[in-house]
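Researcher: Structure for this, please.
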Amino acid sequence: MSGGSTVRCLVAKVGLDGHDRGAHVIARAFRDAGFEVVYSGLHKSPDEIVTAAVQEDVDVVGVSILSGAHNTLVPKVIDGLEEYDALDDTLVIVGGIVPEEDREELRELGVAEIFGPGASMGETIEFVRENVHDR
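Model: Predicted structure, token format:
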């Protein structure tokens, strides 16, 4: 985790997915929980997300994706974090629509957890609090 005890999160919208309501909701919930939050904005490439994560020295990268491109874009984010030797220090979570059959492969690549429709803000916040210190 970065210098202080405050959890620093990057909430990221990757690719052409233009649906950002969920990203805004989780960003607000993270802020209300006392986390520092950086929001990437829409239509970011995996490289832009990695660069922002490294520059902002975040503890958590939360990728919000609804486009169906999770098997292509999320591994690129993971690879980029590895290239910067930042993956071991960064908790990567995914929120959005990820079919059950794709989840295990993403977890094997380094995604800590996937939060789909119906996941509560409390559940997500608690997961981050419990797991960010273990990185």
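Researcher: Any notable elements?
Model: The chain has one domain: 8-134. The chain has a mean pLDDT of 91.
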